[in-house]
Design goal:
ABC_transporter-like_CS; ATP binding; six-stranded mixed β-sheet; cell membrane; membrane; CBS_dom_sf
């Protein structure tokens, strides 16, 4: 489902300035959007207005063309998955019962619920035979967060809200959970709104990043666009200096085809051992160096030829975006 913010603001009682100030945003169905910024910039407030945990002071939020203020809060929240940093599991309930809270409220029958628990635990790589009957205290922090993700997915929502879900997890487990989330997103294509103050996490996960400062949106773009072309000094300081290889790792093959015109290459070229449109350019670069090939074919999800990429195309694309810095 698409999500649209129209001049959305939030002023808390007694505050001198709005927590969210006149935000206009449009997100497409299936996008992974990351709200990035320092503490107090308004990103969590913006997120919580989507499921009406907070109400806007001004403006309208639409989901699939419907003003969410016309939908009862409880009904809306049952249609939207929600994951928080502390995972929010009920300590007195077994894992299987934690997962199916919403399906039970929706009146699902026992067989459907039982099947869904197994599907979800397998999806987050927790063996149902081992974990269904356990309590949250019997799981590690990372395992609990996996259950939190499974619970958010229980009623198969189109939208998933995630508020710093991996913030309290150690770095190694955090990376593992990020990998799991990317795998799940590639499989299910949910519309995900994800809040973080961690720049590397945002760059790794997002299709697009919304950078916020003092309640306002200061830049929206792909990870590569944010990194290569920061809109102002605030964004530049926020993302810091990243190496050329880091920039390359955030660029996808489809970006190189678009920027360099490589898609116009003849399909008659050697199309063996191709790379995918959404593969990282850093991987393609490494493949070119290792094989000594001048160029390598790119194919889409259906295996259809999309173009040829060579070292010159990659360098040209990096040069084009780098020259756009302000």
């Amino acid at each position: 489902m698409g999500i649209v913010f129209k001049r959305v603001s939030k002023m808390y009682p007694g505050a001198k300035t709005p927590a969210v100030d006149g935000v206009d945003l449009v997100f497409g169905e299936g996008e992974f959007i990351v709200f990035l910024g320092p503490s107090g910039c308004g990103k969590t407030t913006l997120l919580k207005m989507v499921n009406r945990l907070y109400e806007p002071t001004e403006g309208v939020i639409e989901i699939d063309g419907v003003d969410i203020s016309t939908i009862k809060g409880e009904e809306l929240r049952r249609r939207i998955g929600y994951v928080i940093q502390q995972n929010g599991l009920f300590p007195h309930m077994r894992i299987e019962d934690n997962i199916v809270v919403v399906p039970r409220l929706l009146g699902w029958d026992r067989d459907r619920i039982d099947k869904r628990v197994n599907e979800l635990l397998e999806m987050v790589h927790l063996d149902p035979a081992i974990y269904r009957k356990r309590y949250p205290r019997q799981l590690s922090g990372g395992q609990q967060q996996r259950v939190g993700i499974a619970r958010a997915m229980a009623a198969d929502p189109s939208i998933l809200l995630m508020d710093e879900p991996f913030g309290a997890i150690d770095p190694i487990t955090r990376t593992s959970l990020q990998d799991e989330l990317l795998r799940i997103q590639k499989q299910l294509k949910k519309t995900i709104l994800f809040v973080t103050h961690d720049v590397d996490e945002a760059l790794r996960l997002a299709d697009r990043i919304v950078v916020m400062q003092s309640g306002r949106v200061v830049q929206v773009g792909t990870p590569y666009e944010i990194l290569a072309n920061p809109a102002n000094d605030f964004v530049r300081q926020l993302v810091g200096e990243r190496s050329l290889f880091r920039r390359m790792s955030l660029l996808k093959n489809r970006d190189v085809l678009r920027l360099s015109g490589a898609a116009e290459a003849a399909a008659a070229a050697d199309a063996s051992d191709p790379v995918g449109l959404d593969d990282s350019v850093s991987d393609t670069f490494a493949r070119l160096v290792e094989t000594g090939k001048k160029s390598i074919p790119v194919v889409d999800e259906r295996g259809h030829f999309a173009g040829m990429i060579g070292l010159s195309h990659i360098l040209d694309s990096l040069s084009r975006t780098g020259s756009e810095r302000t």
